């Protein structure tokens, strides 16, 4: 006979799958659940743990349990990541695709950022006010590495995730891209070859173009990166540094395996090539745990780990950091050439925000919300795009990568912009022509009428470009609850 807790759990799974219980809904407390089903606390706890193990519930510290639907698995009908197969070659970037201005909108599909409703404004405001009353508050020049209070809090925060960070080795910067820029200037010069993944975040390619660096793109694979081609590039093409994102890559949303991260760290040490790691999305994980960076496997200081709170907390804070490893002294010197420091009141406020546990609580809340939001975007797109379209389920982060066969996404982006819908065409993310039928959209916004209208227009135009009979305008009201 099936155990009572499994019987109840099976009923709940059916209700979740039929969407009779919404993703993101809070479950009753264990005591209330006992009363509701006339069961013991032991049975209730066994039921919740059974559901949690199968990814139908997620716990949040001191908050309770929340409903979720399991992420798509192989063979679930949602296509997995597939990438072009090509041979890597050095490219001198003469000109980048034109960056079209994006209208000021809270609901843009172009910029990877959190919905304003997911920003913890009240707690941040309290911490900022409290920071001005601290004993160590002053308006003098910043410490050479940045605020010690913030570095200590960041160190403790990452250590709790299983990633040991020495506060004395951290350097605070004006965001993650600032850290990446300083790292590139620290270890390379104009004309040097930098290895990047393919496709690669457009902002990184823009920086490399501005600095006059050449690029060699390393093909991505379903499970990460083509490490054979990477090692061949390190051996034979004069690569001076690598610039990679290991976790929830922008634009694809996929991640490297632990084995690949360890192998890349080892290659950096073996060939004495710095690995600059842009890890800005790491803490926005759709899985149960926050993944480790390449830096975790770095034994000899060849990895320069860069990150920030711009994507996880609020872009306006402009606080990032770097763990430069063996390049710390040179990195600090380069930072001093560019700036005399980072906004000190904001650093102190962020230190207090972390110390009070607000940041950990915020990450739990945001990741739970993003998991639900991700399934809503994917469900809408899978329903309304042509069958040939691929929507790649991300492991985390804020973006969705679409492959739209037969569609010129650069032209599509121009057509959408004329109707005030903004997306990023695939050609923005490579020096090659391999992604002209791909598209990246922001999924950080909570779906509402504006979002569904934009997505609906996107789907209609894709169907038109594929010369598929249009079944009429999409009823977006169906997706609003």
TrEMBL record:
Give the family, as the similarity comment puts it.
Answer: In the C-terminal section; belongs to the class-I pyridoxal-phosphate-dependent aminotransferase family.
What are this entry's molecular-function GO terms? DNA binding; DNA-binding transcription factor activity; pyridoxal phosphate binding
What domain of life does the UniProt record list for this protein's source?
Answer: Bacteria
Q: What is this protein called?
A: HTH gntR-type domain-containing protein
Keywords assigned: DNA-binding, Pyridoxal phosphate, Transcription, Transcription regulation
Species lineage, top-down?
Bacteria, Pseudomonadati, Pseudomonadota, Gammaproteobacteria, Alteromonadales
Residues covered by the HTH gntR-type domain: 2-70
The record's annotation in InterPro entries points to: Aminotransferase_I/II_large (IPR004839), HTH_trans_reg/aminotransferase (IPR051446), PyrdxlP-dep_Trfase (IPR015424), PyrdxlP-dep_Trfase_major (IPR015421), Tscrpt_reg_HTH_GntR (IPR000524), WH-like_DNA-bd_sf (IPR036388), WH_DNA-bd_sf (IPR036390)
């Amino acid at each position: 006979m099936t155990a009572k807790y499994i019987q109840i759990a099976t009923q709940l799974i059916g209700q979740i799958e039929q969407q009779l219980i919404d993703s993101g809904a809070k479950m009753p407390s264990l005591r209330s659940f006992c009363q509701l089903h006339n069961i013991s606390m032991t049975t209730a706890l066994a039921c919740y743990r059974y559901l949690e193990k199968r990814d139908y519930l997620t716990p949040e510290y001191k908050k309770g349990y929340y409903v979720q639907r399991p992420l798509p698995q192989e063979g679930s009908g949602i296509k997995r990541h597939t990438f072009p197969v090509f041979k890597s070659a050095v490219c001198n970037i003469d000109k980048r695709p034109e960056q079209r201005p994006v209208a000021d909108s809270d609901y843009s599909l172009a910029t990877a950022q959190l919905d304003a409703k997911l920003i913890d404004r009240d707690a941040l405001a309290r911490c900022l006010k409290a920071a001005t009353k601290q004993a160590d508050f002053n308006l003098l020049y910043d410490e050479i590495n940045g605020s010690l209070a913030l570095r200590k809090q960041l160190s403790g925060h990452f250590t709790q995730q299983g990633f040991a960070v020495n506060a004395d080795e951290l350097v605070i910067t004006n965001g993650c891209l600032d850290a990446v820029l300083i790292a590139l200037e620290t270890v390379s010069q104009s004309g040097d070859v930098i290895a990047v993944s393919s496709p690669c975040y457009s902002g990184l390619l823009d920086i490399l173009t501005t600095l006059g660096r050449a690029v060699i793109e390393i093909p991505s694979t379903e499970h990460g990166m083509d490490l054979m081609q990477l090692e061949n590039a390190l051996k034979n093409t004069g690569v001076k540094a690598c610039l990679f994102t290991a976790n929830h890559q922008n634009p694809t949303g996929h991640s490297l395996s632990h084995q690949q991260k360890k192998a890349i760290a080892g290659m950096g040490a073996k060939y004495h090539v710095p690995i600059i790691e842009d890890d800005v999305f790491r803490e926005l994980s759709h899985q149960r745990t926050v993944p480790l960076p390449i830096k975790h496997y770095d034994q000899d200081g060849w990895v320069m780990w860069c990150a920030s709170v711009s994507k996880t907390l609020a872009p306006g804070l402009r606080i990032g950091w770097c763990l430069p490893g063996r390049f710390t002294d040179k990195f600090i010197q380069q930072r001093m050439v560019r700036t005399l420091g980072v906004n000190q009141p904001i650093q102190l406020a962020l230190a207090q925000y972390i110390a009070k546990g607000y940041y950990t609580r915020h990450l739990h809340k945001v990741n739970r919300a993003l998991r639900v939001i991700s399934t809503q975007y994917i469900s809408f797109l899978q329903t309304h795009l042509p069958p040939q379209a691929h929507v790649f389920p991300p492991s985390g982060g804020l973006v969705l990568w679409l492959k739209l066969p037969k569609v010129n996404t650069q032209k599509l982006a121009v057509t959408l912009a004329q109707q005030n819908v903004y997306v990023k065409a695939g050609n923005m993310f490579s020096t090659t022509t391999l992604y002209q039928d791909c598209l990246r959209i922001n999924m950080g916004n909570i779906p509402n009428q504006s979002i569904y209208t934009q997505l609906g227009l996107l789907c209609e135009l894709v169907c038109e470009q594929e010369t598929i009979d249009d079944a009429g305008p999409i009823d977006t009201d169906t997706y609003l609850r």
